[in-house]
Structure formats: C-alpha cells, structure tokens
C-alpha cells in the first residue's frame, strides 16, 4: 500500500493490468470483478473518492464494495485454514483459561504421538501461538479457545473457531 503522503495519480493506475498481472479469474475467485478492482486500486493507494469517480459511482458504494471484498477474503482464508486443519496430522485444542506456557507440551506430545517433528523450541512455539492467536491470548492467558494444527512438514497453524 502506498503511504498517504505519496498518493498516486488515479489516471496512472490501471486496474485491468493489476488484475491481469495478479492472475485474477472471476470464475474461480470468491471476489466479484468489481470487488477485485476496488481492492486492487485501494492497495495501490487510491482513495475511495477517486475510485468512485473512476467507476461512476458514489464513495459510499465503493466503501461497501471494499468492505464486502475484505470480508470475502477473510472468509476464504478461514475456509483454507479449516481445510488445512482437517488434513493436518496433529490437531490440539487449547481451551480458554489455559496458561500459554502449557501449550507447547500439549503440542509436542501430540506431535510425538503422530510422528511429526516440530522445529521450534517451547519459547518459539509459545510466541508463534500468541502472535497468531491475536487477542485470543493476553499475556500468558488463553482467553478464547484455539486450535493448533501441525502439518506433516512441521508447519504450525493457529485458528480461532
């Protein structure tokens, strides 16, 4: 994204080229072409009002399209994470109220049982879980239920249901 003080000229940004260069295919995407176009222009630093002028619509409409697009992207990410969790050889539920310091042992035990190697130390694993859990972890307290999955390659994923 372009910094606010470095706004590109709207005429200098070609949405079609951006979408083509990123390999956008509306038939295979969870985004409509308009949603993809708005996101592409916003990621290039254009203001919603500039996009509205370009598309011949209102800024409020562009805002709505952008919000829907970002929601669709988040839903797609969650769907992929869910599908990966289903196929992961290691799945560990970390209940709300758990001390984050207890999580690595639970993950290591599950990995040992499944024959999966994790290439992270306990402190690295705690940090990864804390970072990826967002506000579900505060200090050492797990405040919301989490699922930690480990792929056959040792890759850690953290999801909130």
TrEMBL record:
Ranges of residues in domain DNA binding protein Tfx C-terminal: 76-158
This protein's source sits in the domain of life called Archaea
Q: Does the keyword Transcription regulation apply?
A: yes
**Region of interest: Disordered:** 1-20
**Xref: InterPro entries:** RNA_pol_sigma70_r4 (IPR007630), Tfx_C (IPR029291), Tfx_DNA-bd_arc (IPR004645), Tfx_DNA-bd_euryarc (IPR018384), Tfx_DNA-bd_sf_arc (IPR036657)
Q: Which UniProt keywords apply?
A: DNA-binding, Transcription, Transcription regulation
Acidic residues bias locations: 1-17
One GO MF term:
DNA binding
Domain named RNA polymerase sigma-70 region: which ranges? Answer: 30-72
Name of a matching Pfam family:
TFX_C
Q: What is this protein called?
A: Tfx family DNA-binding protein
What organism, scientifically named, is this protein from?
Halorubrum miltondacostae
């Amino acid at each position: 994204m372009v910094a606010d003080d470095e706004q590109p000229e709207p005429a200098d940004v070609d949405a079609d080229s951006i979408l083509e260069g990123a390999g956008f295919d509306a038939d295979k995407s969870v985004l409509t072409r308009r949603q993809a176009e708005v996101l592409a222009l916003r990621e290039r630093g254009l203001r919603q009002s500039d996009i509205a002028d370009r598309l011949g619509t209102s800024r409020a409409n562009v805002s709505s399209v952008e919000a829907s697009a970002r929601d669709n992207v988040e839903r797609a990410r969650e769907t992929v994470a869910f599908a990966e969790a289903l196929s992961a050889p290691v799945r560990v539920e970390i209940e709300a109220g758990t001390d984050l310091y207890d999580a690595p042992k639970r993950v290591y035990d599950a990995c040992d049982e499944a024959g999966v190697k994790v290439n992270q130390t306990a402190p690295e694993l705690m940090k990864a879980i804390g970072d990826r859990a967002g506000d579900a972890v505060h200090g050492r307290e797990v405040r919301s239920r989490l699922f930690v999955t480990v792929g056959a390659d040792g890759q850690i994923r953290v999801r909130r249901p």
